[in-house]
Amino acid sequence: MTTTVQTFQNFIGGKWQAAREGRTFANYNPATGETLGHFPLSSTADVDAAVASARQAFEHWRLVPAPKRGEILFRVGELLSRHKEELARIMTREMGKVLKETRGDVQEGIDMAYYMAGEGRRLFGYTVPVELPNKSGMALRDPVGVVACITPWNFPIAIPTWKMFPALVAGNTIVLKPASDTPQSALRLVEILQEAGLPEGVVNLVCGSGQEVGEALIHHPDVAVISFTGSTESGRHVAVEAAQSLKRVSLEMGGKNAVIVLDDADLELAVEGILWSAYGTTGQRCTACSRLIVQRGVHDHLLEKLLPRIEQLRLGDGLDEQVDVGPVINASQLEKIHAYVEIGQGEGATLVTGGACAEVEGLTSGSFYRPTLFKDVRPEMRIAQEEIFGPVLSVIAVDTFDEAIAVNNQTPFGLSSAIYTQNINNAQRAMRDLTTGILYINSGTTGAEIQLPFGGTRGTGNGHREAGIAGLDVFTEWKVVYTDYSGKLQKAQIDS
Ligand code: UN1
Prior knowledge:
Belongs to the aldehyde dehydrogenase family. The protein has 14 helices and 23 strands. It has helices at 44-61, 66-82, 84-95, 99-119, 158-169, 183-195, 210-219, 232-243, 267-279, 296-312, 331-347, 401-409, 424-433, 470-474; strands spanning 10-12, 15-17, 24-28, 35-40, 126-128, 135-143, 146-150, 173-177, 203-205, 223-229, 248-252, 257-261, 289-295, 350-353, 357-358, 368-369, 372-375, 392-398, 413-414, 416-420, 438-441, 457-458, 476-484. The strands form seven sheets. It has a seven-stranded mixed β-sheet with strand order 14-17-18-13-12-20-21, with helices on both faces. The protein has a five-stranded parallel β-sheet with strand order 9-8-7-10-11, sandwiched between helices. A hairpin with a 6-residue loop joins β5 (126-128) and β6 (135-143). It binds 2-aminohexanedioic acid (UN1).
């Protein structure tokens, strides 16, 4: 029996269409090696067409009342809920993470749809008293224009929705460039947006490489905002290039997130949080826990509890509900993970478990990596400073809480941190002194909710936040309106 592999298309101006130069690329299931489809390998010409379509649609979409835009997003939420299982399965097949996590990924999209649907009836600006009599002042949110969303493979539905839904409710139009490892999830999401009643041209999708499609978006004069999630290296490049044209750029990049376990912690609870945050999604989250900072009083005891649990994690195809940890996204990522393990050994860290590929019967050889734990890690080692983006956890022993705070804060990143303590004073101090954008008290480093700002300090981003009300700032321009109804010339700041 031969099964035909489907060919997918870009979505531009309300029409599905092949890349203008006719080129395609194949995408594969990282667990099984199965070919999942052929996707357009687009060029600048496709980007030009998509941006032109978004630019044209902007003139109409910005005038649609925001509550109506919100209603469409509400329908998107309903459709995503109806298709949750289907989307989760598409995502597990192309990305590898286990079904319970891909369902969670879709759920974040559903949550964001409903949340931003509500924003259609808020989009709060504000009024304040002004200095002069018979005069008013208010600040309003205007849409910015065409937004380019450049999204990664690790959250193939959630991250595009975090960018697109706030942008859409605010009246912007979109060109989405999904990661080449997970185009099908994005295609299905765009189909659902159309089904919900989004007008032609408001959302466009262009598949292809970062070098071609990403680059064309960054340089296009009609792209007003670039919202990028991905590696620090690529994000820095986006910022530098886009600076030429003074585009607004929102960057969401890496993390080197730590769980701190103090002597007074509930260790059972800590073990659960560490396992979930370090090895869930095969460690391929920007919020993943990759450092464990442990006070010496509980160091050995914690590792005794943690080690067997790590070794019991079941690797396999994410479609199997019994599996805990899916494959690594692709061969180059796996090579990078293993290279870091070798670096860690070279630096003198002790490899406690893992550190090698795992073979899973019947599945692609060389696509699984054993959950890995290093101890005797010093804070300045590369494995404790650089983002690995894989199932590798480095344990750093500290004497005091002060030392734990210093170690936590001394990396190039600042996304998420977590502390396990049963002492209210320590928790309170952690709130003040840990310098990440997100902090969890008595829970792991992952699991941010969409109604609160998401993002980090230092090299994690460039000062913007996604999600929550703060997420709207990236996609809106403040416009201030003064109305003088005195009927005469009144001069602010001038003594009469
Ligand atoms: C990411 O890894 O890029 O907080 C996003 C979390 C998820 C989102 C992670 N809600 O772990």
